[in-house]
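Reopening this one. Same input as before:
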Amino acid sequence: MKKIISLAVLSALVAGCMETGTNNTSSYGYDGFGEEQLAPAENNLNNDAYLMAAAPRYFIGTPYKVEDVQYVPGEDLTYNQIGMVGIIPVELDGSKTINGETMDSHQLVATSKTLPLPSIVKVTNLDNGNAVVVRVNNRGPRVNTRIMDLSAAAAQQIGLTNQTKAQVQVLAPQSIAVKNATLGIVENAPEVAPEPKPVEEPVAAQPVAPVVAKGDYSVQVAAVYSEDNANALAKELAQYGNATVVQEGDMYKVRFVDLDAPTARRIIDALRSDKGMAPGLIKAGKWVNSDSI
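Same output, byte for byte:
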């Protein structure tokens, strides 16, 4: 049975964190970058606080093509793939990533074609067994021969000087934590009693009809370590449908389950507009793009 890596273990795996990538992708990956030999980073400025820090925005994006191959970004906490990885050139230092961070080759960051930005993943060099934990914060590489590119600092940690076959695995608890930090979702927050509403307050707008349809979709709105907080949130969102608390490991996840596509779409839109939430979408047990329906 796989054990979930705690944040404490994460601290031991990495000396820190970083930002990477650029919105200027016109030459990203097309000129052989990732196949060049880069000088090792002079200083290791990484720290766990940076790795887990909130990003300027949480970004998934819509389907796109690279060399006629379509990629569909989406939340996938079970992501675990093997493929070629390369190196992001240090010349991109100072450029902006798609989720608004600033590229710094001394930080432990990486690019991905489909994972949410930011996400936390473990990359293992299959040639030597060396591993590093990185923060994914930009799209790329813009070629189909590689699944990921690493910063110079991350490449140095796993002994990568050109490109190599590696295993890329999402660290689910850390990825959820950095997503929540970016979206301003506070875990384990103390419960605060709502202020009493004045008698003359107008009746609230008509809520979304309770969920009665059955289907393959689930909408997840939160994953927390406090069962009380999860139950309180499910109760708060009951007006939108049958909000359910599902326990997986040490986490309690608030979901609307057994939905058909139209009902899932309606709930996602309502939570976005009414609550400012960024709900995730699951189909038949697998994370999919929440805008794919």
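So the earlier flakiness isn't reproducible anymore. For the record, The domain at 217-288 is CATH 3.30.70.1070 (Alpha-Beta Plaits).
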